[in-house]
Specification:
Elements lengths: L1 H12 L5 H8 L4 H22 L1 H10 L2 E2 L2 E2 L12 H6 L14 E6 L7 E6 H18 L9 E5 L2 H6 L4 H9 L2 E5 L2 E2 L1 H14 L3 E5 H13 L9 E5 L5 H11 L3 E7 L3 E6 L5 E3 L4 E6 L11 E8 L10 E9 L12 E6 L6 E2 L5 E2 L1 H5 L8 E10 L2 E8 L5 H15 L4 E6 L14 E3 L4
Parallel strand pairs: 5-6, 5-8, 8-9, 9-10, 19-22, 20-21
Antiparallel strand pairs: 1-2, 3-4, 7-18, 10-11, 11-12, 12-16, 13-14, 14-15, 15-16, 17-18, 19-20
Helix pairs in contact: 2-6, 3-4, 10-11
């Protein structure tokens, strides 16, 4: 309890305490209350965007969405779909005029499109996202978020490129009973050490990148090493294939739950014990549309369109995230009132492999392109153990310092003798499934 009080005090001081938001979520106990909550926050966001965001003021005025400060939600589906191209073209007009009044920060995403995108988020957004994640862990998975022992098999740019975490991070992890294992670069020695840590710490909860969890389990299976069985394993950040799920569940001897989100809108949906993904309507409005931007019929696959309800600094309204999905049933057997997704496809990524068998997470490579204004689209291809080609669709003049910095980080990960070839192209081809692979290895598996 002492840790809990200290953590809450720190969060309050930093403006990140989310108790108020979580209890507002917890108070929703019916479909009617959920709809009322959702519409209230959607109207509030749309009105804010109309009054403070130049791009949306013009768009909403054109379709007559706002009249005398009243929002007509029947015209919501007339709002044009927001794409990455539109965000780049109208970047400054999409930022709220009052964003400096908030504790804001830049974020960036490459995503499954391989197109880096910079945007603004803030602490108000973070509090709601934290409340939603807390709700998922506590109320759907049944995990004690505060006192439960947790291990994250996660990527850390600081740990891998700068050598160590700061004192603040160490204290935060201690307060949260959390151990982080760096998944960006996993040698066989690393994976052996990680298994020992898991077996010694005996966590209630393990969360990690889908690919990293899978590779750790493959290593354990090859070496006939047993891993401690936690109550819950959560896969996130990458697409969890059936092959991955079966391997992880077999090795950990427990169910794997899939958590779906992105950098732009973070937590979108989480899997329950019945195998359906519950859409977090507390934080987002999710639509699934066909190629004509019409709502799909039941059982049909369509593109995922998201409106984040709580990012007031740079609202993403009807944003095309780049994934495909199918709606599930309105009423789940688990009893939760949130609607569901049955299937999600997207976030395709490979891992790189070194000659000594070490696995390099694709995410470790993609973060090197975060916030690079001269990169419109990229793809990193591992041709051989010591040869990497980087395809770049550039935007403006190349920043030579950043280019050398990217090359140095790739050599740090793959070896100083790795040859890095830069190819500037007009187009990067899609996969047969219509997706862009931003990481492609000719050696992995």
């Amino acid at each position: 309890m002492i840790k809990n009080h200290i953590l809450n005090l720190i969060l309050r001081i930093n403006g990140k305490n989310f108790e108020k938001e979580y209890f507002e979520i917890k108070s929703i106990n019916s479909k009617e209350a959920l709809l009322e909550f959702h519409q209230k926050h959607l109207k509030k966001l749309l009105l804010h965007a109309y009054n403070n965001v130049p791009y949306y003021h013009y768009v909403f005025k054109e379709i007559g969405l706002i009249n005398n400060n009243n929002v007509d939600l029947s015209k919501f589906n007339k709002i044009p779909i927001l794409t990455k191209e539109i965000i780049r073209k109208h970047y400054h007009e999409l930022i709220s005029k009052d964003y400096t009044k908030r504790n804001w920060y830049y974020n960036s995403s490459g995503g499954s499109t391989g197109e880096p995108l910079r945007f603004i988020q803030d602490n108000f957004y973070l509090r709601w996202d934290s409340a939603v994640k807390y709700y998922y862990n506590e109320d759907i998975l049944g995990i004690d978020e505060v006192r439960g022992k947790k291990i994250f098999l996660w990527g850390s740019e600081r740990d891998i490129f700068r050598g160590s975490m700061g004192l603040k991070s160490k204290i935060d992890r201690w307060l949260r009973n959390t151990v982080f294992l760096n998944s960006f670069r996993m040698t066989e020695d690393d994976m052996k050490k990680y298994i020992k840590i898991i077996n010694s710490y005996k966590p209630e909860f393990i969360e990690g990148y889908a690919g990293s969890l899978y590779e750790l389990c493959r290593y354990a299976e090859r070496g006939k090493l047993k891993i401690y069985t936690p109550r819950v394993v959560v896969s996130t950040a990458e697409t969890l294939s059936n092959e991955m799920r079966e391997k992880i569940e077999d090795v950990f001897r427990t169910k794997v739950y899939d958590l779906y989100g992105s950098r732009e809108v973070v937590n979108l949906a989480g899997e329950c014990k019945e195998g359906l993904m519950h859409i977090f309507l507390f934080g987002n409005c999710v639509e699934i549309l066909n190629t004509d931007n019409k709502a799909v019929k039941e059982g049909e696959e369509g593109k995922v369109i998201v409106t984040d309800l709580h990012n007031y600094s740079m609202p993403f309204i009807r944003y095309e995230i780049g994934d495909m999905a199918v709606f599930g049933t309105e009423k789940c057997k688990c009893g939760n009132i949130l609607p569901t997704l049955k299937n999600i496809t997207g976030r395709i990524t490979d891992h790189f492999v070194k000659e000594d068998g070490a696995i390099i997470s694709g995410s470790a490579l993609t973060i090197t392109f975060n916030l690079k204004d001269w990169v419109k689209k990229f793809q990193i291809i591992q041709k051989d153990y010591k040869k990497v080609e980087i395809l770049i669709v550039r935007k403006g003049k190349v920043n030579e310092f950043e280019k050398r910095e990217i090359e140095d980080k790739i050599k740090f990960l793959l070896g100083q003798d790795c040859e890095v070839i830069w190819s500037f192209v007009d187009i990067i081809p899609k996969t047969p499934q219509g997706k862009y692979l931003y990481i492609k290895s000719l050696l992995w598996r």
